[in-house]
Amino acid sequence: MQPITREYTHGDLDWEIVAIGGHYRFTDEVRLPFEGKEIFYLKGYALFDTTCCGAGGCSYIMVQGFVAQWKTGKNAAGEPVSRVTPIQDPALQRRIQQFLIKKENVQQVQFR
Fold first, then answer.
1. What residues of the chain score a pLDDT lower than 70?
2. Measured between alpha carbons, how far is residue 38 from residues 46, 66, 79, 81 in Å?
3. What is the pLDDT of residue 2?
4. Residues 110, 24: contact at Cβ < 8 Å?
5. DSSP secondary structure string for all residues of 11-50
6. Distances (CA, A) of 58 to 34, 45, 93
7. Could you give the CA distance from residue 33 to residue 39 in angstroms, rounded to a whole number?
8. Which pLDDT score is estimated for 3?
9. What is the rounded CA–CA span in Å between residue 44 and residue 60?
10. Who's near 45: CB < 8 A, 6+ residues apart?
11. Which of 31, 61, 92, 101 counts the highest number of beta carbons within 10 A?
């Protein structure tokens, strides 16, 4: 049985998403070997600089999944499209989370 994959559209990075308390942005797309497969994730940061109660920030990773196919097509807008296998096993997520926090020095690792 083939693993279930989903489509991922590669959009522009490095643009701010503004929220009431500040903004966040993705800065990098990263592919990284892990236990015989390749993890694909977005790296970014959040800055809380317009809140009423102080300032702060954090860096984070949003894991998209394991790479199944890399930029093998384009969507109607001409953006590159890949296929990823979501990582749903909690034990595997914990191992990846610990690995990425240590390697990338981020505060949060989330899984899509």
1. 1-2
2. 26, 5, 22, 17
3. 66
4. no
5. ---S--EEETTEEEEEEEEEEEEETTEEEEEEEEEEEEEE
6. 24, 6, 20
7. 6
8. 75
9. 5
10. 24, 25, 27, 57, 58, 59, 60
11. 61
What phi, psi does 14 have (nearest 5°)?
Answer: 65, 40
Residue-wise pLDDT for 28-38, tens only, equals: 999 999 999 99
Q: How far apart are CA 36 and CA 31, in angstroms?
A: 13
The token pair that represents 5 in the structure block: 């994959």
What pTM did the predictor assign? 0.89
Distance between CA atoms of 68 and 36, rounded to whole angstroms? 13
HSE toward the beta carbon, residue 100, CA cutoff 13 A: 28
Q: Which residue has tokens 């093998």?
A: 72
Domain boundary assignment for the chain: 6-111
